[in-house]
Design a protein that fits this description.
- The chain has helices spanning 2-62, 83-105, and strands at 80-82, 108-116, 121-126, 130-132, 138-140, 145-156, 165-167, 170-172, 175-186.
- The chain is α+β, with helices and mostly antiparallel strands and 187 residues long.
- The chain has one domain (54-186).
- The strands form three sheets. The chain has a five-stranded mixed beta sheet.
- A hairpin with a 4-residue loop joins β2 (108-116) and β3 (121-126).
């Protein structure tokens, strides 16, 4: 009789150990699932924040007085890039790229491409994340890149012909073209 009680106790102990083992395996699977879900969620949030940064930088670049078309003391034209200002900006940005413009644009590349009447590209700002490898060479160190595109009007009063037409009592001078601004943000 003592022998059967010991055997019965051993069986109950083995059942308890088996149930605990299965319980801990299920808890382990739950933790693995939870951490994978959190990792994917964080990656999606990072991509969303990068897309928001790209849109913010695009809007900032579109409405900067350094590029905007203006008519004297009147309001500036929407979605218009003044090519004279753009060429002057390209000559002076190197003096202020690390101080002023890095605080505005961060690690990004901003370029304007003229589609009509010509096919010219201007790189306004280019600051890529880089690191130094073991050989002392600089290599790109960004993991994600988000690009945005926005169609703009390109006004050039110094080059091209003068249309001299009048719209709503305002004389239009200079040549207008079509292009797009490309903003690539690095993370």
């Amino acid at each position: 009789m003592l022998f059967t009680k010991n055997k019965k106790a051993q069986m109950q102990l083995m059942e308890t150990i088996g149930v605990l083992f299965i319980f801990f395996v299920l808890v382990l699977f739950g933790l693995i699932f939870y951490f994978k879900f959190q990792q994917i969620s964080l990656e999606q949030k990072e991509e969303e924040l990068l897309a928001n940064d790209a849109m913010d930088i695009t809007l900032t670049a579109l409405f900067m007085p350094e590029f905007q078309c203006s008519r004297g003391s009147a309001e500036s034209e929407d979605n218009c890039i003044d090519m004279s200002k753009l060429r002057a900006f390209n000559q002076t940005i190197s003096d202020y790229i690390n101080d002023y413009y890095f605080n505005i644009f961060g690690f990004s590349k901003i370029s304007i491409t003229e589609v009509y009447p010509g096919n010219i590209s201007y790189v306004l700002y280019d600051k890529e994340k880089v690191s130094t490898n073991a050989e002392g060479e600089e290599v790109s160190s960004w993991q994600l890149k988000e690009s945005t595109f926005f169609v703009v009007t390109l006004k050039d009063e110094t080059h091209g012909r003068n249309f001299g037409s009048t719209t709503r009592g305002i004389e239009i001078k200079g040549m207008y073209g079509v292009g797009y601004i490309t903003v690539e943000v690095y993370s």
